[in-house]
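[Meeting: bench + compute handoff]

Bench side (C.D.) handed over the final construct sequence. Compute side (W.E.) agreed to return the predicted structure before the next meeting so the bench team could plan truncations. Sequence as handed over:
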Amino acid sequence: MAPTPLSIDVPSSYETINLTHIKLSHHPAGAPTATPVIVVTLNRPEKYNAFTPQMADSLEHAFRMIHLDPRVKVAVLTGAGKMFCAGSDLDVGFGDGKGRAVDFRDIGGRVTIAMHRCQKPTIVALQGSAVGVGMTMTLPAAVRICHEKSKYGFVFTRRGLTIESCASYFLPRLLGFSRAMYLISTGAVFPPSPQHFGDLFAEVLPEAAQVLPRALELAQDMAVNVSPLASTMSRALMWEGPDSPEAAHLLESRVFHHMTGQPDYKEGVASFLQKRPPIFNTNVHDNGPSDYPWWDEVHIDRELRASKEPSKL
């Protein structure tokens, strides 16, 4: 049986939405309606932004709205206060292991799936330290920027737990199995050096106050100069690509051929030759290849669908 469609309201303004334990804002802040860059802030600074089921619900909802909103091009995820995320709130816990395992969905995994399926890239601005789910939730992001004096780690095995948030899929693909095994097996925290994290962090900045402004600068550049359709297709080719170079060549060729017939290709070339910013207006729903998605999607819940009219929130 096909999943039951789930309707999501796309708001006129993200800044009028009240979601538990997170804050949504425009860039620039105070803009009356949605901007190309939306900032998602973990907002429990008094608890070091410790992760809760309510925060997971809010993040999942936020990324689903951003996914469906054609006005939004890039999401920036950051934290309020000195720490990005202290991991799960241990005062809340994870349950008692009772009930059917087949019915359980880890809350961090719900968030990473929402971020991964969001057709808008996410830049994570880790302005402070992060451990546990505070790290694993960032793995589907396109870019991670952090603070060189903060510490980061996957501490699950030191709490008697296994990794979650789809980290068994993302982490070895991002770091390689050797580094991923070391980080998971030790459960230790480290400064963001390439020795331990390889290229997981695209940029490491000397001051915490530099992290979010740099993420916003990069997000604004991407929102103006990058085709959303080309970006979505390129990321899908990497995450959902075949296992052999020959099969990758066939798939890439098919998608590339499709892209050469789209308005963004013509606009990208024209804007470059005319030395002006591009105006990209395509999206996956209207301009994607007929076989997109070309992989077999596994549904963890009901199908997502936008409501017909923008919300007045």
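W.E. noted at the follow-up: Confidence is low (pLDDT under 50) at residues 1-5. C.D. will use this when planning the next construct.
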